[in-house]
Structure formats: C-alpha cells, structure tokens
Amino acid sequence: MRLLPLTQRFPNLSCVNSAGMTVQPASPVVAPIERRGSDRRKPSTPLVRLLTRLALMALGWGAAVALIAFSRLVGDDRAIDGRMATILAIFFSGGVIGAVTAFPTAVILVIRRPQKSARFAAMVVSLTLGTVGFTGFLFYLHFNRYYAAWHAEPFTHDWLWQTLFTGAQAVYIFAVTGLPLLFPAGIPLLFVAGLMFSRTDGRRGWRPQDGRLPRKDRRGDGKAPRRQL
After folding, report:
1. Of 60, 90, 91, 195, which sees the most CB atoms within 10 A?
2. 204 half-sphere exposure, CB direction, 13 A CA radius
3. Is the pTM above the cut of 0.70?
4. Where in this protein does the record put region Disordered (predicted)?
5. By C-alpha distance, which of 167, 162, 101 is closest to 136?
6. Is 70 helix (H, G, I), strand (E, B) or coil?
7. Which residues of 79-112 are buried (b: 16+ CB within 10 A; e: fewer)?
C-alpha cells in the first residue's frame, strides 16, 4: 500500500520548512470545463436569416393559395379525390415558386424607390404575376403531359402545331377554371403580403449591399456626398 505525503492526505495542513517558515499548501487548480460542440452555437449570418424567412414566406404563401383553392372546390361540391389532390399540389407548388421569385423581384424594383407605397406595389404585382404565372405553367405541363400521347413525333411540323394549340387550350382552361379559385379571396392576402413587405423594409431602412446611397441623402438636395481623399 502506497502512502501519500501529508500535504496530499491533509490539504489544510500547514508545514514548517527548514528555515522555520510556515508554508501553506497551494490550493488545487481546477481546469475549466470545456464546452461541448453542441453548446458552441455560432450566430446566424444575415444571409441565413434571409433565406430562412424567404423559405417560411414561400411555404406559408403556397399553403394559403392551396387552402383558398380547396375552400372553393369544396364549396362547389367537388369530390375529395386524387384529382383534387393534383389540383391542390399544382396550386401549392405554383404559390411557393411564385413567392420565391416575387421577393427578389420586389427587392430589385424598389432599389431606386424605397418609399413604402413603392414597396407595397412592387410586392403585390410581383407576387400576383409570380403566383399566377407559375401556377399556370405547372397546369400547362400537367395538361400537355396528358395529351402528349396523341401528339406526333417530337420536333416535327405537326408536333409543333399540336404543342402550340395544346398550350393555348391550357391557358384558356386555366383562365376560366383556375383563376376563379384564387379571386377574389386571394386579394386580401396580396394586400397583407405587400403591407408586411413595406413595413419590414421601412423599419430596417433599405440600403443596397453595394454601399450606394438612395437618391436623397440626409442633406436633402438629392446629391450624393463627395468622397474625401
């Protein structure tokens, strides 16, 4: 059995050295506890926050568009079957893609016009065109896929005319039967989205990433300040 020194067995014990001086043993040094990797959370960058908000906005807008279409279909006594699921999937996908493209489009449009009214109008117009355009395009792809079995060989003269007429028919059917599912119930949602976009950018103060100032700076004369060498 190994015996430990007195200073280790009794940490509070004082000792006297050869010079007659009392020596108090040093207190043990406690090493700092290292944090685990999961505790080291890096702050999210502005790009990550922007992409997260864009994804949430797109998913929320797509769900709202699909919900409006579902309510209209149920109100018209449509059966809840696979055909309705396909229609709702088209509207949901069109709303998501339309929202993803509408946000950067609205941001680009308001670079020169940072007023709230301009931001509101830019988001409403971009979101309307994006949602209707991409939903109609997805409807055309589904419609053309159904009639492709009766088309001629691809990239021939007959195939070209058949594709054009099929596309025109798909646009007409979507305008007559698809758009009424979104309007007028979708108009208040467009106004809400435009209002949120205008208020958010208004609180933060729009500044382009390249460092350029808007038209009117703090001096109010509409001229950008000169750079001092």
Report:
1. 91
2. 10
3. no
4. 202-229
5. 167
6. helix
7. eeeeeeeebbebbbbbbbbbbbbbbebbbebbee
In which residue are the tokens 């998913």 written?
59
Q: How far apart are CA 60 and CA 100, in angstroms?
A: 11
Closest CA to 98 of 126, 64, 139: 126
Distance from C-alpha of 113 to C-alpha of 128, rounded to nearest angstrom = 20
Please say whether the beta carbons of 185 and 179 come within 8 A.
no
Cα separation, 65 vs 44, in Å, equals: 30
Tell me which residue of 99, 111, 118 sits closest to 53, measured CA to CA: 99
Q: Would you say 96 and 67 are in contact if contact means Cβ atoms under 8 Å apart?
A: no
CB 116 within 8 A of CB 94: no
Q: How far apart are CA 54 and CA 123, in angstroms?
A: 13
CA–CA separation, 10 and 99 (whole Å): 72
Number of continuous H segments (helices) and E segments (strands) in the chain: 6, 2
**Cα 226 to Cα 83: distance, rounded to the nearest angstrom:** 63
**Using CA atoms, how far apart are residues 194 and 123, in angstroms rounded to an integer?**
5
**Kindly report the CA angle at 131 between 145 and 114, in degrees rounded to 5?**
150
SS3 198: helix
Q: Where are the domains of the chain?
A: 51-204
Mean pLDDT of the chain: 77
Amino acid letter, 74: V
pLDDT tens by residue, 25-58: 555 555 555 555 544 556 568 888 888 988 998 9
Residue tagged 């020194």 (tokens):
5
